[in-house]
Amino acid sequence: MKLNELLIGQIENALNVKLTGDQKGYLLTNEVYCWSGGRSSGKTFAHCIKLALSEGEPLDMSNPEKFSDYGDGTRRYARDYYRRMFMYIWYQLHDYGFPVREVKK
Fold first, then answer.
1. How many degrees, rounded to 5, is the angle at CA 10 between CA 54 and CA 3?
2. Cβ neighbours around 82 below 10 Å, total
3. How far apart are CA 1 and CA 57, in angstroms?
4. Partner residues linked to 59 by β-bridges
5. For 69-105, what is each residue's pLDDT tens digit?
6. Helix (H, G, I), strand (E, B) or coil at 25
């Protein structure tokens, strides 16, 4: 799904958040995620939104390390923190009416 400013506002409503300028910029472009900051910078959150609204083969949630934003590079990160955040965002967007990417659980 090609995102635009109007959809960004709807995403914020669906998730009940206010996205940062960096997050919006990342969602509106095809650029790689490159802003400074470490933990709590919003990188994983924005990555999950972009992935949930992307097109492609169904995502296999039994192996999220294949598509996660890598975090600390461990399977534990991908299979715990990342999977929980992704599914929370996926369900919120789905329930709001966005066409989300199919997942296999």
1. 35
2. 21
3. 14
4. 103
5. 876 667 888 888 899 999 999 999 999 999 999 999 8
6. helix
State the Cα angle at 22 between 3 and 9, rounded to 5°.
40
Against a cut of 0.90, is the pTM above it?
no
Question: Do residues 70 and 64 lie in contact, with contact meaning Cβ atoms separated by under 8 Å?
Answer: no
* Secondary structure element (H or E) that encloses residue 104, with its range: strand 103-104
Dump the DSSP string for 35-99.
-S--TTSSHHHHHHHHHHT--SSPEETT-GGGTS--TTS-HHIIIIIIHHHHHHHHHHHHHHT--
